[in-house]
Amino acid sequence: MASRIKLFIPLIIFVILAGIFLVVLKDEDYDPQSLPSALIDKPVPEFSLPQVGSDTVLTRADIIGKPMLLNIWATWCISCRVEHPYLNQLSEQGVFIIGVDYKDDRAKAQDWLGRLGNPYSVNLFDKQGSFGLDLGVYGAPETYLIDSQGVIRYKHVGVVDDVVWKGTLKPMYDKLVADAAN
């Protein structure tokens, strides 16, 4: 009898896991794209990094002062290539974007920006990924919305496109710009 019950253990485990899966799917707040950041409402971590196009080293104090998108990108990132033309459009519309070239080759990054355009007002070179690690980066692309005081207000994982910009980031960015003007 006990050996017959053992035959049903995999089925029981499957039913339990399926039930948990269904409960999660019915949760209206569940977002499979969401990778929350522990840094929301906390300052951008301190850093000291060179720029992609020069050996000039910048720190946190050099980049704060107005609302921005902080975009993590790399030449090895296929999704970054998809996102790049849209970032160029946002930059042309006056959106302040700081780039962080993450775990990349500097020469390839300079070539990329020369060929595809440079949407970044400042572009930091994070060769070792230390700043990315401090930010809690999972990969590229990731985009952080930062207020004028240098506080992280939102993190988006994945490509920034028209849907993400207009539906999520733009309303928050516009509010940060308005708050900074007051």
UniProtKB/TrEMBL annotation:
The keyword Isomerase does not apply. The chain crosses the membrane at residues 7-25. Keywords: Cytochrome c-type biogenesis, Disulfide bond, Membrane, Redox-active center, Transmembrane, Transmembrane helix. It is a single-pass membrane protein. Residues 38-178 form the Thioredoxin domain. It holds the Pfam family Redoxin. InterPro entries: Periplasmic_diS_OxRdtase_DsbE, Redoxin, Thioredoxin-like_sf, Thioredoxin_domain, Thioredoxin_ResA/DsbE_sf. Its main location: membrane. GO terms for cellular component: outer membrane-bounded periplasmic space; plasma membrane. It is found in: Cell inner membrane. GO terms for biological process: cytochrome complex assembly. One of its GO terms (molecular function) is disulfide oxidoreductase activity. Belongs to the thioredoxin family. DsbE subfamily. This is Thiol:disulfide interchange protein DsbE. It comes from BD1-7 clade bacterium. The lineage of its organism: Bacteria, Pseudomonadati, Pseudomonadota, Gammaproteobacteria, Cellvibrionales.
